[in-house]
Amino acid sequence: GQKVFIKFDNIKYDEENNLLCYLYLWNKTFINAHLIKNGLADVDTAYDYKYKEKFMQLKNSGIR
């Protein structure tokens, strides 16, 4: 397996105690963005966070 690097935003946990974080590979691949762009993850719109707008753009660009 590969190691991932975790970065946190201002909010670490949501109301359901889910860990909210950004994941990166050693080569700086932004895993969250990759998953959203490929339709493998959805965008959480309940909170404001650093990459919310970028994630929404990726989600919309992935829809064909």
What does it look like?
The protein has 64 residues and is α+β, with helices and mostly antiparallel strands. The protein has a single domain, classed as OB fold (Dihydrolipoamide Acetyltransferase, E2P), CATH 2.40.50. It is built from two helices and two strands; from the N terminus they run E-E-H-H. Strands 1-2 form a two-stranded antiparallel ribbon. The longest helix is centred in the C-terminal third of the chain and has 11 residues. The mean pLDDT is 93.
SSE topology:
Layout: E1 5-13, E2 19-24, H1 31-37, H2 52-62
Antiparallel strand pairs: 1-2
Helix pairs in contact: 1-2
Kindly name the structural category: alpha+beta
Give the topology string: H per helix, E per strand: EEHH
**Largest sheet report:** 2 strands, antiparallel
The total of beta strands comes to 2
Shape: globular
Contiguous low-pLDDT stretches (5 residues minimum) are none
The CATH class is Mainly Beta
Helix content: 25-40%
Question: Count of DSSP helices?
Answer: 2
CATH architecture: Beta Barrel
CATH topology: OB fold (Dihydrolipoamide Acetyltransferase, E2P)
Instruction: Count up the domains.
Output: 1
- Report, as a whole number of angstroms, the end-to-end distance: 32 Å
The whole-number mean of residue pLDDT values reads 93
* Strand numbers in spatial order across the main sheet: 1-2
Into which percentage range does the β-strand content fall?
15-25%
Radius of gyration: 12 Å
